[in-house]
Every structure is written in C-alpha cells, then in structure tokens.
Amino acid sequence: MPTPNKTLLSENSQSGLAKKLEEKERERQRIVAINKQVAVGVIADLKMDTETRISKLLAAFIDSAIKHQTLSLVEWKSANKEARKLQKIFLELKSLGQPGREALLGLVSHKDLSVSLMAAVYALKYNPDKSLKALRRLVKEHGFIGFQAEQAIKRWEEGTWNIE
Which CATH superfamily is domain 50-158 in? Predict the structure, then answer.
C-alpha cells in the first residue's frame, strides 16, 4: 500500500506533468499560428497579381535604363552594374510571358530616349519590327544614344545579337 506522502507526491508530479504538457501544447499552437501567418504572407507575395509585378518591374527598368545611360559616359563599373540589373529585370518580365513582353515593348516609345533605347534592345527578339523602328528613330539622335542604336541594328543584321 502506498504511503500518503508517495501518493501526494505522485499526484503532484502528475499534476505538474499535465501542466507542463498543457504549456507545451499552447506553445506548439502558438508556433503553428505564427507559421500560418508567415505562410499566408509568403503566398500573398507569390500571388501578387501580374499587373502589379509588371508595374514594379517597369518602374525599375526605367530607373536602371536612365542610370545606365548616364553612368555609361562617366563610370563604366557602375554602368555595368545597372546593365546587370536591366538584364535581371528583363528576365523577370520575360518569365511573366506575353504580358511582361508586351509591357516592355510599350517602353520603346518612352519619352526618355535611354529608356526607349534599352526597351528596343531587349525587345528585339520578341518584336523585331517595332524594336527596329524605334532603333532607327534613335539612330538619328546625336551622341551616344544614336551610336548605341546604330550598333544594336548592326549586330542584329549581322546575326550576332544575343541579349536573351
């Protein structure tokens, strides 16, 4: 027969163990709830509608095209950094399929000539007619933009164009 002290100790141990188990379960539920919130946020980011993604990418493309053109004349290392950004943005737009490609193609008529140039360059394989038309318009510009447009057309016609 158990002694009263052992029974009391055993009941206290069981009660303490039950409390610890309850605490652990509450902590597990709290962590599950937090993970669900994080997952919902991640899924929302992944599901960001295509239109919003395209808008953000176009804004970044415009910014990098202008910076690239400006830096090309004075700081080639920084210009190359912007060129890599442009390539990355282009690949993201391309990954969105036709809507991304069409959005980029829309920039060939942008008011900033550096944006128009870079959009035409990156859209050459997708829509050569519209891109070449823009490049031929830009060739008439004096300075570096005209030269870059001329070089893009030359490489396209030689078959050495390889942006994608």
Answer: Phosphatidylinositol 3-kinase, accessory domain (PIK) (1.25.40.70)
